[in-house]
Amino acid sequence: DADVTQTPRNRITKTGKRIMLECSQTKGHDRMYWYRQDPGLGLRLIYYSFDVKDINKGEISDGYSVSRQAQAKFSLSLESAIPNQTALYFCATSDLNSYEQYFGPGTRLTVT
Amino acid sequence: EDKVVQSPLSLVVHEGDTVTLNCSYEVTNFRSLLWYKQEKKAPTFLFMLTSSGIEKKSGRLSSILDKKELFSILNITATQTGDSAVYLCVINTNAGKSTFGDGTTLTVKP
Question: Min CA distance, B37 vs chain A (Å)?
Fold first, then answer.
């Protein structure tokens, strides 16, 4: 089984809809991250969480919110999706000491 | 503002060539630099560097960090078509923030 899983893997939604992307991990890591990747660009950090009670904005948090329901679960929400949020979204985890990040397979989101 | 710049942005070589990818950075409270390889899926971890001058090696790939001049290089020798990918450099800070470069797209032709 994969250590970091994301659901859904693909999603097409309409402008204005609320959508949630979910991430689960079995690595026992405290730290979790949400990134988005756009064609021709690197990964950009949306939000990160160091533990269940700690949530931090990343580089591009506007239009997004997150919830850390448990150590193993970190969800990303788009309250009112817009077309420029069409992207590939990655969840990642890391432990306290190494900072080596483990990525999920990605969620491809299309907003029409 | 933390910044990570990778160069070149894209590179086309032939099998057997040696390539050097560059990553320069300006960050506050540097902790580590990581290299990832990304094909058409999630990034794959390659190296993590924390100390200057110590080369990390894995097969045909190697990397080194210079904390004085604020850069790292990733070398790939005897390139193969399977090395074609986007190579990402990321800096982690002591505050736990990660900043990614835009990546270098490497294409290896047969």
Answer: 12
Residue to substitute from B6, B98, B100, interface A, most A β-carbons within 10 A = B98
Handedness of CA A7, A70, A51, B31 (dihedral sign): negative
CA B87: distance to chain centroid? 6
B38-93 pLDDT tens trace: 887 678 778 888 888 888 888 999 999 999 999 999 999 999 999 999 999 999 88
Q: What is the DSSP letter of B81?
A: G
- CA B109/CA B91 separation, integer angstroms: 30
Q: Is residue A87 scored above 70 in pLDDT?
A: yes
A106 shares contact with chain B (CB less than 8 Å): yes
The model's pLDDT over A18-65, given as tens digits with 9 standing for 90+, comes to 999 999 999 999 889 999 988 767 788 899 898 899 898 887 889 999
Query: Cβ–Cβ contacts within 10 Å for residue B109, how many?
Result: 11
Cβ of B45 within 8 Å of Cβ of A99? The answer is no
Q: What is the pLDDT of residue A40?
A: 67
* A100:B41 CB<8 A: no
Which chain A positions have a beta carbon within 8 Å of B34's beta carbon?
A: 99-101
**Best residue in A43, A54, A59 for a mutation probing chain B (most B CBs within 10 Å):** A43
Task: Look at residues B88, B86, B73 and name the one whose alpha carbon lies nearest to residue B18.
Answer: B73
Does an H or E element contain A5, and which?
Answer: strand A4-7
CB of A31 within 8 Å of a chain B CB? The answer is: yes
